[in-house]
Amino acid sequence: MNIHEYQAKKLLDAFDIAVGNGMAAETVQEAVDATNELGGSVWVVKAQIHAGGRGKAGGVKVCKSPDEVKTYASNLLGSNLVTHQTGPKGQKVRKIYIEAAANIEKEFYLSLVLNRNTSEICVIASAEGGVDIEGVAEKHPDKIINLNICCASGIHAYHARQVAAIYGILDKAKEVLRLLHGLYDFYTSCDCSLIEINPLVLTSEGTLLALDAKVSFDDNALFRHESIRELSDPFEEDASETEAKSYDLNYIKLDGKIGCLVNGAGLAMATMDIIKHYGGEPANFLDVGGGATKENVSKAFQIILKDPEVKAILVNIFGGIMRCDIIALGIIAAATEMKLDVPLIVRLQGTNKDLGKQLLESSGLNIIAADGLDEAAQKAVASLKG
Questions:
Q1: Alpha carbon distance 296, 302 (integer Å)
Q2: In terms of CB atoms within 10 Å, which of 105, 194, 195, 310 comes out highest?
Q3: Is 226 a catalytic residue?
Q4: What pLDDT tens digit does each residue of the chain (386 aa) get?
Q5: Residues 280, 285, 289, 292: is their CA dihedral positive or negative?
Q6: Comparing C-alpha atoms, which of 304, 341, 297 is closest to residue 323?
């Protein structure tokens, strides 16, 4: 689960991490009022969307008067911001963040992320702050360090010295240590999956300040953090993905034309891969899980059919705990209710597969049967051409 910058900074502040002074606003008047409350003479106005690259897209502006804040807030609120992470459709700006400008001397990059290869939290640091870290990694990998943190011992002073050294501020090693301790405590206690500060800045006053913050949480751990769950912004998520979550379905919308309904994340990814192998493009990732009911399967099918880009549907089920007859009943219920008008390719294997096939055959639906995954993918791709 992602949250907005202003929410992330409030959480970071609770762990004694310096984040500066700022206020969120949903109206132009609130933005102007924020300048009065924050004081000073220079402010930074930032679009609040769940995407990076806001600055390059015109979503961040330095303003030197309340009138300039008013003008920019008027232009930004309600606009559609397109960045390299939003895709061509962009994201509507519903909130902005007004922040008192900082006196910046140096900019750095710092993040904490899970290293799945070692099952440890990894600290990634670079002196190249305020830019796309992916570009730095590609062109100047020597300017980035990766430190795997042992979960049994946590952050140590030598970690801070290594980070301070690559930043070129060894005299600030103690401040870096306090920062890393705060970030590590935040990450572990709140079940984060990512904390990214880009840029982390050294101000002329000698403070290490999180000038920007991106934080993501492990969805599977949100039951432990009700206050964090409440920070979710449904406007930042695809409506179909939000609906799918309410039915315990794992759904991600993609850009292709072949809808996929699969049980198991690994099988879902394999299904998408083989569709691409035969020249097609998947329209979604959809894993109904192992304990789905007829109603869950029916809802999954409906969600796929709501996508106007879907021109064919491939159902690929390997029945274990998830019985093939339950899948069949869900397909029949949804297809009947929504008047299926696209080719439906179904591959059923495993528990009660014969019963499932019998139910589908007697349903009167126009179904293209397949026994193997290759066959199913080929028929799905071919159905778009027919």
A1: 10
A2: 195
A3: no
A4: 999 999 999 999 999 999 999 999 999 999 999 999 999 999 999 999 998 888 888 999 999 999 999 999 999 999 999 988 887 888 999 999 999 999 999 999 999 999 999 999 999 999 988 777 888 888 888 889 999 999 899 999 999 999 999 999 999 999 999 999 999 999 999 999 999 999 999 999 999 999 999 999 998 899 999 999 999 998 887 778 888 888 888 899 898 999 998 888 888 999 999 999 999 999 999 988 767 677 888 888 889 988 899 999 998 888 777 788 888 888 888 888 777 888 999 888 888 888 988 998 888 888 888 888 999 999 999 999 86
A5: negative
A6: 297
User: Against a cut of 0.85, is the pTM above it?
Assistant: no
Q: Select which of 5, 99, 128, 196 is catalytic.
A: 196
For residue 230, indicate whether it is catalytic. Answer: no
User: Catalytic: which of 6, 97, 109, 167?
Assistant: 109
Question: How far from 322 is each of 37, 327, 350, 359, CA to CA, in Å?
Answer: 57, 8, 9, 16
Tokens of 144: 């980035």
Q: How is residue 245 written in tokens?
A: 């979550």
